[in-house]
Amino acid sequence: MIGLFSKKNESAGEITMKKLFDAKGKVKAVEGTEETKNDIAILQHTASVIFKKLEKQIEILEAIEASVDAKLVNFERLLHMADSIHHPQGPVNRQHEVMALTYRGLKVDEIADVLGMQRGEVELILNLNK
Question: For the whole model, what pTM was predicted?
Answer without folding.
Answer: 0.42
